[in-house]
Design goal:
single chain; alpha+beta; Uridine Diphospho-n-acetylenolpyruvylglucosamine Reductase, domain 3; Enolase-like, domain 1; 2 domains; five-stranded antiparallel β-sheet; four-stranded antiparallel β-sheet; 12 helices; 12 strands; oxidoreductase activity; FAD-bd_PCMH; Mopterin_DH_FAD-bd; FAD binding
Length: 276
């Protein structure tokens, strides 16, 4: 085992150091350790905590919410603006690990792990990643890369005033290990009862973060009141999204069917977002 640590003073310096494949970014370090086998690999760690752009939570002029990648998961869980503007992210952090871990763990670290609960929430919120060169890229596109670049912050657009949200996790609250699945959903309901602009983020053990695009398309042609946990059409759509993991697909379909069916019943956990 051989570990060394670099302390870059600028994002450009950190990004340049990361061109070496034997490097990894580190902030809290909690998720990074989970990806290592024993003993730890020979790595050069790039400490990003001293970089100013990775800190802070702020509303932008365009109404989006900018969250620095080094913001702790506990800060996200308790931040009033995050609860109002990114409720799925607050819900995900509320179900994640123990308090001591949430104080250390960062949003960027949970995202870099790819299996973290926050990934599902960020995808459902249509998050964009702010990169070291200032560009912004859709997180869903960025996750297609084998190796993630330095992410300074996440930008989340404002939720629609009539948008409903729900977050469901099957796993162990006290363990900082991947949930079996974590589902985050944002959706609107039209005047005719049909679902609109459905966005479903999913992550879990062995399931890197992704959108369930087949399920989203199928749901957007449905009325919430007609859905149920055993809906065959929904099960087929989710199976198309998770062809290599039929067990997780069945579980996800049951959760989605049950939760969508409760939307019309006024499920308190799915009320439209409130203004900050």
């Amino acid at each position: 085992m051989s570990l060394s640590v670099l302390h870059p003073s600028t994002p450009a310096e950190a990004a340049a150091a990361h061109r070496d494949p034997a490097t990894a970014f580190i902030a809290g370090g909690t998720a990074l350790q989970l990806s290592w086998r024993s003993p730890a690999p020979a790595l050069t760690l790039i400490d990003v905590l001293a970089l100013e752009p990775v800190h802070g939570i702020a509303l932008q002029a365009d109404g989006s919410l900018r969250i620095g990648a080094a913001v702790s998961l506990e800060t996200l869980r308790t931040h009033a603006t995050v609860a109002a503007r990114a409720p799925l992210l607050a819900m995900a952090c509320d179900s994640l690990a123990a308090l001591a871990v949430r104080h250390l763990a960062t949003l960027g670290g949970n995202l870099g792990w790819r299996f973290g609960d926050t990934v599902a929430a960020l995808l459902a919120h249509r998050a964009e990643a702010e990169l070291a060169d200032g560009r912004r890229q859709a997180l869903s596109d960025l996750l297609a890369h084998d190796r993630l670049p330095l992410i300074l912050a996440l930008h989340l657009p404002p939720p629609h005033p009539e948008e409903h949200h729900f977050y469901e996790k099957v796993g162990h609250r006290a363990a900082f290990t991947p949930a079996r699945i974590a589902l985050a959903v944002a959706v609107c309901i039209g005047m005719d009862g049909r679902l609109q602009d459905t966005r479903i983020g999913l992550a879990g053990a062995g399931l890197s973060g992704r959108r369930l695009l087949h399920a989203e398309a199928w749901l957007n042609a449905c009325q919430a009141a007609r859905l149920g946990a055993a809906d065959r059409g929904l099960r087929a759509a989710v199976a198309a999204d998770l062809p290599a993991d039929p067990a997780s697909a069945r579980l996800a379909a049951r959760i989605l069917g049950g939760r969508f069916g409760r939307l019309q019943a006024g499920d308190a956990a799915s009320e439209p977002a409130t203004s900050p």
